[in-house]
Design a protein that fits this description.
By secondary structure, this protein is mainly α. The protein has a single domain, classed as ABC transporter transmembrane region fold. The chain is built from 6 helices and no strands. The radius of gyration is 26 Å and the shape is elongated. The two termini are 31 Å apart.
Length: 198
């Protein structure tokens, strides 16, 4: 954020005119907050999940290499489809941030020119546009929230389908290999642990 504030002095006047002070304000607040959340939480979760998958994979390969190999080959498919669902939602977050930018731009313009608007008796027009922008922010935020939640639920469903598939293969391995039932229960625990990063 400090680096972005340092860049404010180097932004051309044309960009101020094009984006408006509300747009630049929205960029400094909303976009930077989105990046900050990504770096802070998502990156940390990724590192933890990666290490979890590697550790669990080693144990599963040690228990039974065929079962471990099957799990390691199918797990990326489950992760791929989960990520695909997540990427469908990212454009909604971008649209929500853009709505915030438009709203903040109109709000700043209205507040900057409130005296001129009152003198010209156009205050109601601008306030109506501001209300429409605020409503669009609400609509876009709601759309992002429910579609993000729906994608999370479908992703969890994929997770459960993958878990059940792994469990079925593990049951077959009891019949066709020298794995004991105790080892299979251990595999179930490791599967749940391994799929949780998804």
């Amino acid at each position: 954020r400090s680096k972005m504030i340092d860049k404010l002095g180097r932004i051309s006047i044309r960009q101020y005119e094009t984006k408006g002070s509300g747009g630049i304000n929205a960029h400094l607040i909303t976009d930077i907050e989105t990046i900050d959340q990504f770096v802070g939480s998502t990156l940390a979760k990724f590192v933890i999940s990666f290490l979890t998958v590697i550790g669990t994979a080693i144990v599963l390969l040690w228990l039974d290499w065929r079962l471990g190999l099957f799990i390691l080959l199918v797990n990326p498919i489950v992760i791929y489809f989960s990520r695909k669902l997540g990427s469908m939602v990212k454009h909604l977050k971008r649209k929500e941030n853009h709505s915030f930018e438009i709203f903040q731009n109109r709000l700043v313009e209205t507040l900057d020119g409130i005296y001129q608007l009152r003198a010209a008796n156009k205050e109601r027009e601008f306030l109506q546009q501001l209300k429409e922008s605020a409503n669009q922010v609400r609509v876009d935020a709601d759309k992002y929230a429910w579609q993000s939640e729906a994608a999370g639920r479908v992703s969890f469903l994929l997770f459960l389908i993958g878990f059940e598939l792994f469990r079925a293969v593990a049951m077959l391995m009891v019949m066709f290999s020298d794995l004991t039932i105790g080892q299979i229960f251990a595999v179930f625990g490791y599967l749940w642990f391994m799929l949780s990063p998804v």
